[in-house]
Structure formats: structure tokens, C-alpha cells
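Internal ticket - ligand job 472, arginine:
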Amino acid sequence: MSSRREENATTGPFRLWGGRYSKGTDHVLSRVNNSLTVDKRLYSEDLDGSVAYARSLAEAKLLTQSEFKVICYGLETIRDEWKKETIKLMPRDEDVHTVNERRLVEIIGPQIGGKLHTGRSRNEQVVVDMKLWMRNAVSDILKQLAALIGGIKDLATRYIDVLMPGYTHMQKAQPVRFSHWILSYAFYFKEDYHRFQEFYNRMNVLPLGSGALAGNPFNINRHKLADDLGFNGVSYNSMNAVSDRDFVVEFNFLSTLTAVHLSRLAEDLILYSTKEYNFLELSEEYTTGSSLMPQKRNPDSLELVRGISGNVFGQHCGLLMTLKGLPSTYNKDLQCDKSGMFAVYDQTVLSLTLMTGVITTIRLDEERCLSALSYDMLATDMAYYLVRKGIPFREAHHISGEVVAFSEKVKIPINKLSLEDLKEISPYFDETVSGLWNYENSVEQYTVVGGTSRIAVQEQINLLKDFLSSCE
Ligand code: ARG
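stdout (C-alpha cells):
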């Protein structure tokens, strides 16, 4: 028996499941099966889950108080080793759970160390670890989102009076405040914030106590265990709990949506910072030069944010593909969930941080923004002018269209057409039409909630201020 156990690394005594095996694992399978390089990131959560589980076992009288204390001592010693990076990893350590259990047995001996896993399976352990980890991950993302929203709010406040073209179909459409445009993104990120917050509360449910799939037979108090670990409640079906990765899918999706918002903002900023638009300048810290063309300043930060969004989306799709078609409960395919989850988190935090840096250092060229406006962008205002004189909107739109066509035909800017010319197109025009040719007046008419008037933009800023103070 003992000689069989000493055969090689993969049949050694610390293979958690070695009891019925006589042959070693194929070395390629060992490599593929080994998830330690990825999941060692969960060492601390794994130890937290174990301390709480040991307490449950003690409360259920499966451990004495002194055994519980010894186990806690062992687990804290292991935590220290991880922190100091002195922990020795063995080729046969399949994953982080294996390492922690192996070390526990080495430190406090198999008599007591061997009791920790009573009734517990790695199938549930890994889910607890991931959920504990995800709570912190979501909190970090929430903080980053709030910082970005704050940056956008400050930028909007600083440049509240700057006017620029608003675009649809990439065509100059109507004048808007710069602040109104940039704030449109703050509202995307605010929704992202709420979604992550709701998600946090919904996923914060304890899976531990589900065993491998059938539950826990030792009368542990799962509600107390949930409380100890800061969960809002317990899962109600053990088979569901060990196979459920929907929380990872949701995390990946919410991150993907955030990444898409970041990517769209990046695209706008890239365009607006080109020489062609030149509405704004990115700080040198967030651009790089070309090795060949000395005049160039490339918006790498924003291009990377845009690029990363593709990777994040890819990870999201990848996990959905892994889950599709899986039979009930735990299957090893599920081990493929973590690398994507970590990558999604890392890249989302990086992108948010980068974007916040870009936003807080932008310098606006107010003159360029203003000079990009042209009076034909007030053709809608002309239609509204006629509407205010009692003309149905469709007819007013038509008349205004005729004025635009006429101005193009005679090559006279729309604001320079004579009153006589205008009257010829419609008798409703009078001398008050000259009041139309003012961009400030144009944006100021949109006083409706959500509009681009100063008052409506200020309202948005105030709302975001209140929101941000509620986040603190
Ligand atoms: N390393 C595994 C994972 O990440 C843990 C669960 C292993 N369970 C098992 N029965 N082999 O999914």
C-alpha cells in the first residue's frame, strides 16, 4: 500500500482522490487538469471559506473547539505562506483547494487536518471561493465606475457653456452643449453601476453545504454559515448550486456592456481628437508617438480601450459556449470558467482606469467646437419657428427644406438669405426670423428635462452629484 502511494508525483499521498487509484495520471492530462496557475488567485477566499466551514463543523459537533482552533491556526499559517510567497507548490497539487488542504495536513497532521473536508466537496468549494472573490471584484468595478462618472461630471461642469455640433449618422445634426454630449456617457455608466449593484445582491447567496451534489448530511447550519461569510442567503438546491455559473456569465456580460460603452466613448474621443475635428486634445500621458512620423500623436489609450472591449466580449461568449450542452451538476468543463472571469475583471478595471485618466486630462478647444457649427444646422429651428407661428410641423419641415435647397442653389448661406427670398418661399416669415441665427438660442430652447439647455444640463450634473454622494 505505502509503496503504491509513493509511485510518482501524481499517485502520491496528497492526491485528494487517490484512494482507489493504482496508476498515475497521464502527464498531459495532469497538465491540462492542473488549474493552479489560474486559481491560486483564490487562495485567500479559499481559506476564508474553510475557516467558516470549520466553524460550522465545530458547531455541529463534528470538531471539538480545540480541533477547530488548531485548524484555524493551520489555515492562517498557510495564508501567511501565500502572502510571503514562501508556499511550496507541488506538481501533484491540482488546484488551490488541493494546495491548501495538503498544507493543512502537513502543518497540523492528518488526524485533525483530515477532518476539515468532512461533507464538503471541491465542487461547492470552488463556487464559494469564486463568489467571495466576485464580491470584491464587483466592489472594485463599482468604485471605478463612480470615479469615471465623477470625471465626466467635472469635465461637463468645466465646459458647460461650450457649444458643438451634435451628430446623427455621423452627419452634423443640431447644435448641442459639449457638456450634454459627454454627459450622455455618464448616464450609460450610471446604468452600468446600478446593474452591477443589483447583480451583487442577487448573486450573494451561499452555495456551501451542497456537498458534491446531494447536500450536506452533517446538520450544519447553512444560514449561520451564510451570515459568517457575509452572504445574504443560502442556495436552495444543491444540484443547482454546484453547477451554476450564471453568476460568472452575468459578471462577464455586465463587464462586456460596460466595455462596449467604454469602446463607444473611446471611438468618439478618437474622432474628436483628430486634426480633422480637433475639438479636444488628449493629454500626452495618454498618447504615444510614431517611430517613423514625428508629427504624430496616437490615441493608443483609447484604441486599447476599444480593442480590449473585443477581448472582454470574447470571454463572455467563451463561457456561454462552455456551458451550453453541459449535463447536470459538476463537470470538469466548469474549470474553464476562471481564466476568462479573471481576464474580464482585469481588463474592465484597466479600461475604466485608463478612460478616467483620459477624461480627467482632456483639454477642450472651445473655438474649434464652436466654429464647427454651421447655420444649416438650424434648419430644424426654422421649422420650429414656423410651428410657433401656427404652421403644422410637417408643412413647416417642408418649407424649411425648401429654404435649405434654395440656399444651396444660390450658394448663399441660409442665414444670409434676404427676407424677400424667404417670404417668397413662405409668407409666414417676417423680420423676427433674424433671431434664429444664434446657436446659443438654439440650444437654450431645449429646456425640457433631458435637453441640452443650460438649465437641463445643470439638472443632469446635479443628479449625478447626488448619485455620486450616495455611492460614497
Ligand atoms: N479545480 C476545480 C474547478 O476549478 C475544482 C472542482 C473540482 N472538482 C472535482 N470534482 N474535480 O472547477
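Auto-summary: The radius of gyration is 31 Å. Confidence is low (pLDDT under 50) at residues 1-11.
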